[in-house]
Design a protein that fits this description.
The termini are far apart. The radius of gyration is 24 Å and the shape is globular. With 317 residues, the chain is of the alpha+beta class. The protein is 31% helix and 27% strand. It folds into two domains: 171 residues, CheC-like (Chemotaxis protein chec); 69 residues, no CATH class. It has nine helices and 13 strands. Helix 2 packs across helix 5. Strands 7, 8, 9, 10, 11, 12 and 13 form a seven-stranded mixed beta sheet that branches. A six-stranded antiparallel beta sheet has the order 1-5-6-3-2-4.
């Protein structure tokens, strides 16, 4: 092999690793996480982000088999694409239909029009969040103004639909609540026609808190944040036909329900502890018995809300 080629590749990789993170590389993971949280109540994280500049021929090699290709239309009729791997697509669909992401393997199938319709609004929210995060960044020029237009279930038509030009491509590995991982690819024309970034002049303000004062202010701000906790009596699995047939008055059998082992779960569906159902001051309440795998203190207090039953019992499946 040509040692010169290997040397150039190693030098290029070292330069890429040392290069500072671009605005889009910082803003896109945040936009993805917020759109998943606000739209589906799903915890989505993107620990790995890679940025590339590809020709159309190189871009056509990226879509995974049976991935969903969302076509994006932007300023001056420019076209781009957001590509979801089967694992990521399945997780987003499950979050909407089941309320959680399943750990079961994804069955191989081609994406459908229904799949595209179920994630189109989420994709638009991601693109909007990306724009808002780049209002003062140079990357706004090539990311601004793109929205969902249509979909493809295979990559071959991309060669006819996309312009033969250079593309800026962001490749992300997404973690869905620690249950499943999938990949997302955002490809937009490198020559952007969006808005120019707006940089407001710096405004004088109070000096930031330093040392112990800053730490105390940070702790106070975090401790005031609201956290939603659900009391889960049990979890059941139903066929889709039975779920669609549910009507007022229907009876759901809960064979595994136990009033002394109620799960405490956050928005991500993970069990954070166990509790016993009871009453406190005339209201339904939960007494904590176990937290994060450790026994709670004997004097654990009941969890209540002042004006409503303490924790709604969530039946999920």
């Amino acid at each position: 092999m040509d040692q010169g080629i290997i040397r150039r590749k190693l030098v290029g990789a070292a330069r890429a690793a040392a290069a500072p993170e671009s605005g889009a590389e910082r803003a896109l993971p945040l936009a993805l996480a917020r759109a998943a949280r606000d739209g589906f109540g799903l915890v989505l994280e993107c620990p790995a982000v890679r940025s590339h500049r590809y020709s159309l021929a190189e871009l056509l090699e990226l879509p995974p088999e049976r991935g969903l290709i969302l076509l994006l239309e932007g300023p001056r009729a420019a076209m781009g694409a957001m590509i979801l791997s089967p694992d990521l697509l399945a997780g987003l669909i499950e979050a909407q239909t089941l309320g959680r992401v399943s750990a079961q393997p994804v069955l191989p199938r081609k994406p459908t029009r229904t799949d595209a319709a179920m994630v189109a609004d989420w994709a638009d929210q991601v693109l909007l969040g990306l724009e808002e995060g780049l209002l003062a960044e140079e990357d706004l020029v090539w990311t601004d103004g793109f929205r969902y237009a249509s979909y493809l279930d295979e990559a071959r038509p991309l060669a006819l639909l996309l312009e033969d030009t250079a593309y800026k491509v962001l490749v992300l590995r997404c973690d869905l609540g620690g249950v499943r991982q999938g990949d997302l690819i955002l490809a937009l024309p490198a020559e952007g026609h969006g808005r120019r970034p707006h940089r407001a002049p710096p405004q004088p303000g109070p000096e930031p808190a330093q040392g112990a004062d800053f730490q105390a202010a940070l702790v106070a701000g975090v401790m005031e944040a609201e956290v939603v906790v659900q009391g889960v009596l049990t979890r059941i699995t139903l066929p889709l036909s039975a779920l669609l047939a549910l009507a007022p008055g229907a009876v759901l059998h809960l064979p595994q329900a136990a009033l002394d082992r109620i799960e405490l779960a956050g928005l991500d569906g993970r069990c954070r502890g166990l509790a016993r159902l009871g009453q406190a001051r005339g209201q339904r309440a939960l007494r904590l018995s176990q937290i994060s795998g450790q026994e709670a203190a004997p004097a654990a207090v009941a969890v209540t809300q002042p004006d409503a039953p303490a924790l709604p019992l969530a039946k999920t499946g």
